[in-house]
Design brief:
The complex is a heterodimer. Helices cover 30% and strands 19% of the residues of chain A. Chain A has 32 helices and 38 strands. In chain A, strands 19, 20, 21, 22, 23, 24, 25 and 26 form an 8-stranded mixed β-sheet that branches. A 7-stranded mixed β-sheet of chain A has the order 5-4-16-15-14-6-7, with helices on both faces. Chain B has one domain (2-142, 170-239, 254-458). Chain B is 72% helix and 0% strand. Chain B has helices at residues 2-8, 10-13, 25-37, 43-69, 84-95, 97-108, 118-138, 165-198, 202-212, 219-252, 264-290, 299-330, 333-344, 348-360, 368-371, 374-401, 416-439, 445-458. The chains are: A alpha/beta, B mainly alpha. Chains A and B meet through strand 29, helix 27, helix 28 and strand 33 of A and helix 8 of B.
Chain lengths: 1037, 459
């Protein structure tokens, strides 16, 4: 059997055996008996039994048919019981609780603390559980990386748990197999390896911060001393660690304290959106920008970047540079800050740099220079040196030990693995998670190399591109299904506890490693718990363990600041990156001179803002989530600047159906880079650096699942190990074809309407009421007396100044309110269902515009235009000021949507909700109706949450406390830009915000009296920088 | 009266008569009833009926597809949540205006020239309103709950929301349909009796006999009949104004730029009469030719209808002008943008085509030569039919596509199912008309006889 499993083409007799196994695994109920009758005496069956139950084979020969049936009957009965815990339909009688389990009250959710893992780092979350099924992710306020917030990925991870396309069975060479068969099969190979110290054993993981998993790996390496552990993720921190090693000759983790920073320089760092601490950083950053009565002061953000990012859109000053220009630019700033570096070339923007440097120096000890993950190590080292020179270390910049258990250079690690395979050294490759066949740099030829490994095992959530190349595929458990632990950006450990038993026959990484280490059957729970029992924890372990589970953090595990000594800054730091890019550029230019027209561009690879590196490709919520700046859904695109597009003759065309709210036809280009080529739709992105193209990773999957297959193009196809992030020498050619992209908002301009009201801090100081416009209808008379809202009056205030456009609220809303996914075609027709959308507007020149994000939920107008026109009274006003939607009553005239000036209403043009897929049923929020065809829907201010809050308050005979009821969007928001509450309560946060001079309503001139209002946007430009060209906004002098 | 004077001296004035001279009671009766009873069904009838019936099948298929999958099969979306369905609804209702106007208002005004065209104009009204009525029903997300728009004694104690113009629509359109139907049927009764008397075949005699409700043509019958007909005309008259006024409220009550306008009621009514007369002309011109009815539907009728079209067309043009003026004069950026968008936005061609078909083309009607030229009138009528459809498209779709928040601007374009149901509704309309001319007298026999009598008395 073991030799056989490696043969992808099984021989005829094997096929027989396989089919029997398959039949056994597939059939249930009465089929079994007939099968067994037929099978009991066959020779193959004896063989199979030997394989499955080695311990029973000894006494088997003498067993009578009657005994056999008895034995199997018992095990089948147990197998039936096993099915009870799963989502699969149960055709047996079920018995309700005789004794109600403690704490479980039907209809009342429980919350459990765990952590959402992303590239190894954890974000603490609280998971809402309804009678044992998790339905919604919330942030854990106790967790340093969350502070109660979550990002879009964490919100959407609940959908991955219930994804019907998840891998459900263990497979051997594509055929269904069992865990025991796997254990038996690899046993001999492992034994053989043990003799030679594991010389042929390789383990490839993603980034590991889990102390338990690291401990298991270390134990395994002790058992197999010659084995190697590799780590690889396509989006990794290689540059960050390499930069730290350049600067300090040590592995160092950097933590920024934006809550202390007045002046921030971002060198292509998207710290508000990506990275393990983005939620925390966004919160700290936004808190320093809040201008309220009494506190007038803002931090100032300078951003240098290639592709407009969420962080760049929040910047007070932004310069768009090509990737090769950034190191130079950084060096110029550094030398102005007094570091002895000779800048190789004049980067331009002299005035800008001078103003920046003087601003940074003005805020010594209260400034931050932060470099992005995609920047070369030299830039990181320079950033460390600049922070040192600005006296920021220990104040706004803190160094600790690395959170990764083993901070290896991941690309080098993968390269080593590939070389070992090439040299025939690898006999067993165990891949725990990850999808290297899809994500590995294309020039490593990983897939072809992988095929040479004699035994390939992959464990993952999906049967993906890598599984297809492996002998064994083991379904992995979702993080909500198993025990583990994980570190946050500052080292804080969270014990991850499961919310539900594995839906399918998944095995966690802990279980797989335990099996390899010869401890098959050890449960993840025991592994994790035993590890922590071994740690020195003050006090009683049981109490500490329960405390840690309850709080979602293990107390005292955050790393202490570490003293590191900076090496003398040296020009060599940058030499590597600059010269590399220069030679690349020259190489490309010479090549271009020969064959191609002179249109050499730089190229830059970035994780996708919604699919990341491709791991979320089968997540419909994330696929349909409009990307923060492009507002594209279901596709990635080659992003280029308007000027470059003009030069290359690229354009777009707005489709007649859907139009700007849906269908955009764009030119397809062929991108040639390093001898490989790729076809991609070109998208013109205002604010992108000229002569450069940005490609987002994560699309073009072939084995992602029904949702993810075939969307977008695969940027990995031209991503090489020599330039995984940025490179020069790409050539772009228009090929004359067109491609349809689904874009939810193509219109860029506000058309001179005061939808987002913005001013500089200076202007605000002079005129704090700038956001108050003359046309208000306060004095307007009505024939009817106004309604008096005597009890609660719900309202919302959204701080446009704090909103980064990160999309967390949009997915949170989708998860909370059972909002359907409609698919690309329907989005191109302008029919996406998001109740909350984030409008993006530009102002200024397309080269470097100001960007505004404006979340738009239902305004809950007091004079709601929608209510007036509904012929059946399906939308009504509540006594608390909510604009309620009665789905049952709606006949679907859509008149309300036409009459809504904010266009927040969404219509079920088809039967969008999935009523069929069994695994999606437990996902739904039981407190919210799942809407069917022909019905209008829209934001309800999470009325189900309001009612829970009111019931609780009524039980205790009190008013609802401020902040007690949080809408889903509000709870998810990292910057606390959304505030909801009772505006009749003068002490409520929302009432105070509405009294602020920055508060304004959208389209109030229509006399709709919206309950949702906005706080105007403020920018804090440096008065010394006046060049409109570089920053796009007017400054007052 | 002016018309009487004209009748007295047709040759001198150069105005054609309302009925060609030389007709007797018998010739009128024979000529009109023979089309149904005696003549062989002409070949063009089979062809026309066959083609329109194919379109009816398209309509049925389109409706089945729509009901199976949902209104998503159309091109509608957010922001343009209303598309062809509402455009067609308003268009058909507009067409349905001519019948009642001709029957009721012109009756009260004693315009004799109405008598040869009122019957099929009324039939046309009925069929147009039937086609119109399809659309509000089909455009619902859940059409099976359409009865919720009626105030029936619901066990849930829920009534329609009477502030909504859609509820007003339900009453306006259903009342209009009922009155139009009764008016048409009443007008038919003496003729049905004639048909009963003329029919040879048993079944026809039986059927017409049932429908004639025992009409014997006694003096008391005639006396009561005339009274009832006049009263009915009095009832129907306000409806001509009210239906399209209420339909225009669907838009005027909304706050969308391009909808929110006080000019809509009169401008919609004028537009409706405009398109109604255009449709009457569109049908009358081929019919009189094919059935040789030039004696009854004379150039006089065509000329008069041309004049009504010219007048109502000018009112419509005034409406457009005022819309443009008010958009500028209001100083409201949304209104101004709405107009700019109509003229130069992505749907600019719709607007300019509308101006061409609805305003410019009909200006040639100032010339007498055009008003008496059958071919020219037919072409103009077709243009106005198209123009009025475009007007509704511009109002419904173009206004919705770009409203207040530029972030939500989008576009609409019709799908094959939009076209299937639209052309299918035209097929239904034509098919019903073919059935009508096949089984009922398309010109009022008794009123023509009256005309003959009056002509004889005058000369």
């Amino acid at each position: 059997m073991t030799t056989d499993t490696r043969n992808p083409k099984p021989s005829a007799s094997r096929l027989d055996l396989g089919s029997i196994r398959e039949r056994l695994a597939c059939s249930r109920g009465q089929d079994y008996w007939r099968c067994l009758d037929e099978l009991a005496d066959s020779e193959e069956f004896h063989k199979l039994l030997k394989q499955e139950f080695p311990q029973q084979t000894a006494g088997w020969n003498g067993v009578s048919r009657r005994d056999f049936l008895r034995l199997m009957g018992a095990s089948l009965a147990l197998a039936g019981l096993n099915a009870c815990g799963k989502a699969a339909p149960v055709d047996k009688k079920i018995v309700p609780y005789v004794n109600q389990p403690e704490e479980i009250v039907p209809g009342k959710p429980l919350f459990f603390a765990t952590a959402f893992p992303m590239s190894g780092a954890g974000t603490g979350v609280l998971v809402e559980s309804h009678e044992g099924r998790p339905t919604k992710i919330e942030g854990n306020p106790n967790h340093p990386a969350s502070l109660g917030a979550t990002d879009a990925f964490a919100q959407a991870s609940i959908l991955t748990l219930y994804d019907p396309d998840r891998s459900q069975v263990l497979r051997n060479a594509g055929r269904i197999s069992t865990w025991n068969a796997f254990l038996t099969a690899i046993n001999d190979d492992l034994e053989a390896e043990r003799v030679i110290g594991g010389g042929g054993l390789r383990i490839l993981t993603e980034t590991v911060t889990s102390p338990t998993l690291a401990n298991q790996l270390r134990q395994l390496l002790a058992r197999f001393p010659n084995a190697k552990w590799h780590q690889y993720e396509p989006v990794n921190s290689d540059n960050v660690y390499a930069g730290a090693r350049l600067a300090f000759a040590a592995d160092v983790n950097t933590i920024y304290r934006f809550d202390n920073a007045e002046a921030i320089l971002s060198l292509d760092a998207d710290f508000l959106f990506s990275g393990p601490a983005n939620l925390r950083y966004a919160r700290d950053f936004a808190d320093k920008r809040r201008v309220r009565q009494g506190k007038i002061g803002m931090n100032r953000l300078y951003a240098i970047e290639t592709m407009p990012s969420v962080t760049g859109s929040m910047a007070d000053h932004r310069v768009a540079l090509r990737p090769t220009e950034i190191p130079n630019f950084a060096a110029a700033i550094a030398s102005k800050l007094g570091l002895s570096l000779q800048s190789t070339a004049d980067p331009g923007h002299a005035q800008w740099i001078d103003a920046l440097v003087s601003d940074l120096q003005k805020h010594r000890g209260a400034s931050v220079v932060v470099a992005g993950e995609q920047q070369p190590p030299g830039v990181h080292a320079l950033a460390h040196a600049m922070n040192q020179a600005l006296d920021n270390v220990g104040k706004t910049v803190i160094y600790t030990d690395p959170i990764q258990a083993s901070p290896v250079a991941q690309l080098a690690s993968l390269r080593e693995l590939v070389n070992d395979i090439e040299n025939g050294l690898v006999r067993i490759l165990l891949m725990l998670g990850g999808n290297p066949v899809y994500t590995a740099p294309v020039d490593l030829g990983f897939a072809e190399r992988l095929a040479r490994v004699p035994l390939r095992i992959h464990s993952g959530l999906y049967e993906d591109e890598t599984s297809a190349y492996c002998h064994w595929h083991i379904p992995a458990t979702h993080y909500l299904e198993s025990w583990s632990d994980i570190r946050a950006y500052d080292g804080t450990v969270t014990i991850q506890q499961p919310l539900i038993a594995p839906l399918y026959s998944g095995k966690s990484a802990h279980e797989v490693l335990a099996a390899v280490a010869g401890k098959a059957g050890e449960a993840s729970y025991d592994t994790v718990r035993n590890y922590w029992r071994g740690q020195k924890i003050a006090g009683d372990f049981e109490i500490a363990w329960r405390r840690a589970l309850h709080d979602g953090v293990v107390a005292g595990t955050a790393f202490q600041p570490k003293l590191v000594k900076l090496k003398a800054p040296s020009s060599d730091w940058l030499a590597a990156s600059i010269s590399a890019s220069e030679t690349q550029k020259q190489k490309a230019e010479t090549r271009n001179a020969k064959s191609e027209p002179p249109n050499s561009l730089e190229i830059s690879f970035r994780p996708d803002p919604t699919l990341f590196d491709g791991r979320f490709a089968n997540n419909g919520w994330l696929q349909e989530l409009p990307k923060p700046l492009t507002k594209l859904t279901w596709d990635n695109a080659a992003l280029i600047s308007p000027k470059t597009a003009e030069r290359l003759g690229l354009s777009y065309q707005i489709g007649a159906r859907g139009g700007e709210h849906g269908r955009i036809f764009v030119d397809v280009v062929e991108i040639r880079y390093e001898g490989r080529s790729l076809r991609a739709p070109a998208w013109i992105l205002p604010g992108h650096a000229d002569d450069c193209v940005t490609l987002h990773l994560g699309y073009g999957r072939t084995r992602a699942g029904k949702v993810g297959n075939g969307s977008g193009f695969n940027a990995y196809a031209i991503r090489t190990a020599s330039a995984p992030n940025n490179g020069a020498g790409a050539a772009i050619r228009k090929i004359g074809a067109q491609y349809t992209l689904a874009c939810t908002q193509f219109h860029h301009s506000m058309e001179g309407r005061d939808l987002v009201r913005a001013a500089t801090l200076e202007d605000y100081r002079k005129n704090p009421g700038f956001a108050q416009h003359e046309h208000t209808h306060e004095s307007e008379r009505s024939l009817y007396p106004g309604f008096k809202y005597e009890g609660y009056a719900w309202g919302m205030a959204i701080d446009v100044n704090a909103c980064t456009g990160c999309n967390a609220c949009v997915v949170a809303c989708q998860a909370e309110n059972n909002i359907a996914v409609v698919g690309k075609t329907e989005v191109t027709r302008g029919r996406e269902m998001h109740w909350l959308r984030i409008d993006r507007y530009y102002k200024g020149s397309p080269e470097n515009p100001q960007t505004y994000h404006q979340p738009v939920p239902c305004m809950h107008c007091e004079n709601a235009p929608c209510e007036l026109v509904c012929p059946v009274g399906a939308t009504n006003h509540s006594a608390e000021g909510l604009n309620d939607m009665v789905y049952n009553r709606c006949v679907g005239t859509r008149y309300c949507s036409n009459n809504c000036p904010y266009k927040v209403r969404r219509f079920n043009f088809f039967d969008y909700s999935d009523f069929e897929t069994p695994s999606l049923k437990p996902l739904r929020n039981p407190d919210v109706t799942v809407r069917s065809r022909g019905v209008m829907e829209k934001c309800t201010y999470c009325v189900q949450r309001i009612n829970v809050g009111k019931i609780e308050a009524e039980k205790e005979n009190r008013q609802v406390r401020d902040g007690e009821i949080q809408t889903a969007c509000q709870a998810a928001c990292p910057t606390q830009a959304i505030v909801f509450g009772d505006i009749n309560n003068r002490e409520a946060a929302v009432a105070k915000l509405k009294a602020d001079s920055l508060n304004y309503g959208l389209l109030t001139e229509l006399n709709t009296k919206p309950r949702t209002t906005y706080l105007a946007k403020l920018k804090n430009p440096n008065p010394e920088i006046t060049t409109a060209a570089t920053n796009g906004i007017r400054t007052t002098k | 009266m002016e018309s009487e004077q004209l009748n007295k001296s047709p040759e001198i004035e150069g105005v054609p008569p309302v009925i060609e001279p030389g007709h007797t009671f018998a010739s009128v009766t024979d000529k009109i009833s023979a089309i149904v009873l005696a003549q062989r069904t002409p070949r063009f009838w089979y062809i026309g009926f066959g083609l329109s019936f194919i379109l009816v099948l398209v309509l049925l298929f389109g409706i089945a597809y729509l009901l199976t999958l949902g209104v998503g099969v159309w091109g509608i979306n957010v922001p343009v949540a209303w598309g062809f369905a509402i455009v067609n609804f308003v268009w058909w209702i507009g067409i349905g205006h001519a019948g009642t106007l001709i029957s009721a208002i012109l009756l009260l005004l004693r315009q004799k020239w109405r008598q040869s065209i009122n019957r099929f104009a009324e039939a046309m009204t009925l069929f147009a309103v039937a086609c119109a009525g399809l659309f509000p029903l089909l455009h619902l997300g859940r059409p099976w709950y359409a009865y919720w728009l009626f105030p029936y004694p619901s066990t849930m104690g829920i009534q329609p929301q009477f502030r909504s113009p859609l509820v007003w629509d339900v009453f306006a359109v259903s009342t209009y349909f009922t009155i139009s139907f009764l008016f048409w049927y009443m007008g038919l009764i003496p003729d049905l009796a004639t048909m009963r008397d003329q029919a040879r075949r048993r079944f026809a005699r039986f059927a017409y006999g049932i429908l004639a409700m025992g009409w014997r043509g006694s003096a008391i019958h005639w006396h009561r009949y005339e009274m009832a007909y006049l009263l009915m005309a009095g009832l129907a008259t306000p409806l001509v104004v009210s239906v399209h006024t209420v339909v225009s409220f669907d838009f005027a009550v909304g706050l969308l730029p391009g909808w929110h306008s006080t000019i809509f009621p009169p401008y919609f009514v004028a537009g409706a009469i405009y398109s109604g007369f255009a449709m009457v002309l569109t049908l009358a011109i081929p019919l009189r030719k094919l059935y040789g009815l030039e004696d009854f539907i004379t150039l006089r009728h065509l000329k008069n209808m041309g004049e009504v079209m010219l007048a109502t067309g000018l009112i419509v043009a005034y409406g457009y002008l005022m819309e443009t003026f008010m958009a500028w004069y209001s100083g409201n950026i949304y209104e101004q943008y709405m107009l700019w968008n109509r003229m130069f936005g992505p749907y600019w061609y719709m607007y300019w085509a509308l101006i061409l078909f609805n305003i410019l083309v009909s200006q040639v009607l100032w010339f007498r030569a055009v008003r008496t030229n059958v071919v020219a009138l037919f072409v103009i009528a077709i243009c106005v039919n198209i123009g009025m459809w475009l007007e509704r498209y511009v109002i419904v779709v173009v206004s919705l596509s770009r409203d207040f928040l530029p972030s939500s601007w989008g576009m609409y374009s019709a799908t094959v199912w939009d076209y299937a149901i639209f052309t299918g509704s035209i097929g239904l309309f034509v098919c019903l008309l073919f059935l009508f001319i096949r089984v009922l007298p398309m010109i009022s026999i008794f009123e023509m006889r009256e005309l003959v009598h009056e002509e004889a008395e005058e000369t």
